[in-house]
Specification:
alpha+beta; Rhopdopsin 7-helix transmembrane proteins; three-stranded antiparallel beta sheet; 8 helices; globular; Transmembrane protein
């Protein structure tokens, strides 16, 4: 068992800390650039910007700036304003932890169909979290000419430990809420593709965020030495941010992937409203391509079992002998199946002619 308080051990731990910070900066920069195309879709207005994305962008970019600030603090050889530098690093780093919890909370709100009671509870938890985050920013640092480095002379480790403990408990509450809801929705058939994605990916992300904060909290409570007490704070912030931002991207990309009929399992709430998805479709008619958008929607609650299928297809037949065009109208009805649903194809574009197709299932 090493003497954690000895100067030789502290020097060794400090060298490990410096190398770890540079490695983590490389990991996060790699993660940042491989997912930059998602950010660019919003910046170039290819995707519509909505207010929850504010927390996503703040989370990603504040942590990036914090890691750059830490790298500057560890490698600077000329005198700088250490107080301002470390205050910014502390604020941006702690804010990244808080924003990661907010992003995971928004995912939970989506799972619970924007329950007002849940939103109120989460707002109270978020405000309590940020009250600790802002108090943890109060650090004092100064330039030491002999070592040509910035050194923290005073910090409230108690508040910092409380912040990570709060984050850990907060993430655990969110994890339990998602587990309860998603397990109930899976049902005997395993649930829809959306439910499976939220269950498999979502719970893994919550567990990683929880464990990241747990490790940082344990080392702060052990208080082995000044370095070991904070060595896992940055990994916790990076781990929480990466999984929270990936959760946001996965859910956003899912809604642009295509059509899916959402079927609630037996354990789901009967009042839950399934989402509707729209996608572009192409239909070949007479050698031409018919393009349009389709919507899959659930059937009305007052329908009885069975299905009524009615298809109205308008095609254009070219008569090359006399140069005339004759329309053809085909109607098809079938009541032989037991499934219910509705498919609407609209907004069609067909070369230089007009076409309309309506299918009701």
């Amino acid at each position: 068992m090493p003497d954690w308080k000895s100067q030789s051990e502290i020097t060794l731990d400090n060298n490990v800390f410096i190398k770890l910070m540079h490695a983590l900066l490389g990991v996060y920069v790699w993660e940042f650039f491989v997912s930059l195309s998602f950010d660019w879709d919003f910046m170039s207005r290819r995707k519509k910007f909505r207010w929850p994305m504010i927390f996503y962008f703040l989370n990603r970019y504040l942590l990036l700036f914090a890691l750059v600030g830490i790298a500057i603090a560890l490698n600077i050889t000329k005198e700088v304003n250490c107080q301002a530098l470390y205050t910014f690093n502390q604020l941006a780093g702690n804010a990244a932890v808080g924003l990661a919890s907010i992003n995971l909370s928004l995912r939970t709100v989506a799972v619970y169909a924007q329950s007002k009671i849940l939103i109120g509870v989460l707002i109270v938890l978020i405000l309590g979290h940020w009250s600790l985050i802002l108090q943890g920013v109060l650090v004092e640092a100064e330039w030491i000419p002999e070592t040509e480095t910035c050194v923290i002379t005073s910090a409230n480790n108690t508040i910092l430990a409380a912040t990570f403990i709060y984050s850990m408990v907060f993430d655990f509450i969110i994890l339990m809420l998602n587990t309860y809801k998603l397990v109930g929705r899976r049902g005997p058939s395993g649930g829809s593709q959306l439910t499976r994605m939220l269950f498999s990916d979502g719970l893994v992300y919550f567990i990683i965020a929880f464990l990241s904060n747990l490790i940082a909290t344990v080392f702060m409570c052990l208080n082995l030495n000044a370095i070991m007490s904070v060595i896992f704070n940055v990994p916790a912030a990076i781990g929480s941010t990466i999984v929270a931002c990936r959760a946001v991207r996965r859910l956003n990309k899912f809604y642009h992937r295509g059509v899916e009929v959402y079927a609630s399992g037996s354990g789901s709430n009967s009042n839950d409203t399934p989402p509707r998805f729209r996608t572009m479709n192409q239909v070949a008619v007479g050698g031409r391509t018919l393009r349009g958008t389709s919507t899959v929607r659930p059937p009305p609650s007052d329908l009885t079992s069975g299905v009524h299928v009615q298809m109205e297809t308008f095609t254009r037949t070219d008569n090359f002998n006399n140069g005339t065009v004759s329309p053809t109208h085909v109607t098809f009805e079938d009541d032989s199946t037991d499934k219910r649903g509705s498919v609407i194809v609209d907004d069609l574009e067909f070369g230089d002619s007009e076409s309309n197709k309506h299918e009701e299932l």
